[in-house]
């Protein structure tokens, strides 16, 4: 492997003789970087992997949010049916007509880019180590645990029940507050439809998960161009904590979801939100709706940005299977109950690896 630039090496910290860079963005800005540093080399069983575009006979589900909230009774009933089918068969769907304006989505993307374009020392003011930090900037996933570093920088912000924001750039706080308010409303309405698709009362998930004091986080990810993308990984296969994850992209491809044993490329369309079933919804449904495995691959052509909004139970809520689904003999609980706060702490001690955290609460 070619050595990195001298100015980049000054940004390297040593951890058991393994280089750890403060950010991928800083690394890529060196003109001398021509190949991937060994610490970022990610190996996959490529012979066993199948990567495909969406199948015309099994397309990615599309849910029309407007029919869920303003449609006729028949339209709403059909949308709830389609929503349940998408959650059960894919754990993932595209959401259209969601009432989050294209203008606010574009402003949010611009503000995220503006944050990542700050000077490194300004961003390092928000560097954090604990998953509960209200504003946390970093790189890879969990540097202290990762055996291989991932080709991404991130910014994670807790925005509900208490709103937090970095002080820079100047417009970030106002834009993110508006964006998070709108996506929180969308998430709660989707959970009403999902509750009904499970045969529960519309407010079941909202009430039992204590969403009035629920936990909402935005996670912005930047994936700069990579000199050898075939050797690196932006984020490895994983599922998300929480109930739902609403994802916005900047139009650069890289997202893949696992469906029927194949990695499906998910493109980005204008004004579309991508919605993932997350771990806590799998627990509440006692496994009927599975959280979806997904990953981010990188390219050598353009910078990809994604912005995820996590909709999750309150931190002190014990998340467990809904009692309506349980029968001690035929349908016993498949997961143990655990406080959301404790589930978050499990993430801190785990490497990002498939459903490794969810597996810890399976019976």
From TrEMBL:
Gene name, Swiss-Prot/TrEMBL: LOC100818482
Keyword terms of this UniProt record: Iron, Metal-binding, Oxidoreductase, Vitamin C
Membrane-spanning segments: none
Organism (species): Glycine max (Soybean)
Keyword Metal-binding: yes
Superkingdom: Eukaryota
GO terms, molecular function: 2-oxoglutarate-dependent dioxygenase activity; L-ascorbic acid binding; metal ion binding
One Pfam family hit: DIOX_N
Descriptive protein name: Fe2OG dioxygenase domain-containing protein
InterPro entries on file: DIOX_N, IPNS-like_FE2OG_OXY, IPNS-like_sf, Oxoglu/Fe-dep_dioxygenase_dom, Plant_2OG-oxidoreductases
């Amino acid at each position: 492997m070619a050595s990195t630039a001298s100015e980049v090496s000054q940004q390297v910290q040593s951890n058991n003789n393994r280089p750890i860079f403060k950010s991928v963005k800083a690394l890529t800005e060196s003109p001398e970087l021509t190949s991937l540093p060994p610490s970022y080399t990610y190996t996959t069983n490529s012979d066993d992997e199948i990567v495909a575009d969406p199948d015309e006979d099994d397309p990615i589900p599309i849910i029309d949010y407007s029919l869920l909230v303003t449609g006729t009774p028949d339209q709403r009933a059909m949308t709830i049916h389609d929503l349940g089918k998408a959650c059960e068969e894919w754990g993932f769907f595209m959401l259209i007509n969601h009432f989050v304006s294209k203008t606010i989505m574009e402003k949010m993307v611009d503000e995220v880019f503006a944050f990542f374009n700050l000077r490194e020392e300004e961003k390092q003011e928000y560097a954090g180590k604990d998953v509960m930090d209200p504003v946390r900037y970093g790189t890879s996933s969990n540097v202290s645990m990762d055996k291989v570093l991932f080709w991404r920088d991130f910014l994670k912000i807790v925005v509900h029940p208490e709103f937090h924001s970095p002080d820079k750039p100047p417009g970030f706080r106002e834009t993110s507050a508006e964006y998070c308010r709108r996506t929180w409303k969308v998430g709660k309405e989707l959970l009403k439809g999902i509750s009904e698709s499970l045969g529960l009362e519309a407010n079941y998930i909202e009430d039992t998960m204590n969403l009035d004091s629920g936990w909402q986080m935005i996670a912005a990810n930047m994936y700069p161009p990579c000199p050898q993308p075939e050797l690196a990984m932006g984020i490895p296969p994983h599922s998300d904590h929480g109930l739902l994850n609403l994802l916005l992209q900047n139009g650069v491809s890289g997202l893949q979801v696992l469906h029927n044993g194949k990695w499906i490329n998910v493109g980005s369309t204008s004004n579309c939100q991508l919605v993932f079933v997350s771990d806590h919804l799998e627990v509440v449904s006692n496994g009927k709706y599975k959280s979806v495995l997904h990953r981010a691959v990188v390219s050598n052509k353009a910078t990809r940005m994604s912005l995820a909004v996590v909709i999750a139970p309150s931190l002190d809520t014990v998340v467990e299977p809904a009692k309506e689904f349980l029968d001690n003999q035929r349908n016993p609980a498949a997961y143990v109950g655990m406080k959301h706060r404790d589930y978050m702490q499990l993430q801190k001690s785990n490497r990002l690896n498939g459903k490794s955290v969810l597996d810890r609460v399976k019976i």
